[in-house]
Design a protein that fits this description.
By secondary structure, the protein is α/β, with parallel strands linked by helices. It has 2 domains: 49 residues, RecR Domain 1 (Helicase, Ruva Protein, domain 3, Orthogonal Bundle), CATH 1.10.8.420; 127 residues, Dna Topoisomerase Vi A Subunit, Chain: A, domain 2. It is built from 8 helices and 7 strands. The protein has a 5-stranded mixed β-sheet. A two-stranded antiparallel ribbon has the order 1-2. It binds zinc ion. Zinc ion binds next to α4.
Length: 202
């Protein structure tokens, strides 16, 4: 005999959607779904609309590949930012982490991942060609590599250093982080120090 369903179907579907989100287990998914059901309809509508709008409107900057709702992002367009220093990161999350330090005044380049042969990700799957073009066209004075110190991160850092050294000075941030440490989870002071203590790659 089939067991009776615990949740009425629309509720079950909502719980299932929440459970697909990173870091959300079954209990939290249930709590969020029940919370949504109790909200006024206009609040739920605003929430659903925000989800859809963010998905539809946020793309990437055509220069640096950071998340942006405009074709060129605010950082690239900002005349107060140093145009000839580019900080290279794996992901937009890292741009956000570095921006929170309020120490960095240059531009960025988001790779869209790291080189990982095991996952079938080679240089051509990342925005590396666009980076090389940028560095050679914009007369970049310095490229700062700020990539998480994992095995793949190291491979990517060394690959980029070799590729970019003919065009510009290449430095890497001084991680006080352990191997496998994550830029995103470093506190702002640690990150600011890592940036300040960057050294040239040889
Ligand atoms: Zn940009």
């Amino acid at each position: 005999m089939e067991e009776p369903a615990i949740y009425t179907p629309p509720l079950a579907r909502l719980i299932e959607q929440f459970q697909r989100l990173p870091g959300i287990g079954p209990k939290t998914a249930q709590r969020l779904a029940l919370y949504v059901i109790k909200r006024p309809e206009k609040d739920v509508e605003a929430f659903a609309q925000a989800l859809l709008n963010a998905k539809k409107q946020v793309g990437v900057c055509q220069k640096c590949f950071h998340l942006s709702a405009t074709s060129v992002c605010d950082i690239c367009r900002n005349p107060q930012r140093e145009p000839d220093v580019i900080c290279v990161v794996a992901d937009s999350r890292d741009v956000i982490a570095l921006e929170k330090t309020r120490e960095y005044r240059g531009k960025y380049h988001v790779l869209g991942g790291v080189i990982s042969p095991m996952d079938g990700i080679g240089p051509e799957q990342l925005t590396i060609q666009a980076l090389v073009q940028r560095v050679s066209a914009e007369k970049t004075k310095e490229v700062i590599l700020a990539i998480n110190p994992s095995v793949e991160g190291e491979t990517t850092t060394l690959y980029l250093a070799q590729l970019l050294r003919p065009f510009t000075k290449v430095t890497r941030i001084a991680f006080g982080l352990p191997m496998g440490g994550d830029l995103e989870y470093a506190d702002e002071v640690t990150l600011a120090r890592a940036l300040e203590g960057r050294r040239e790659l040889d």
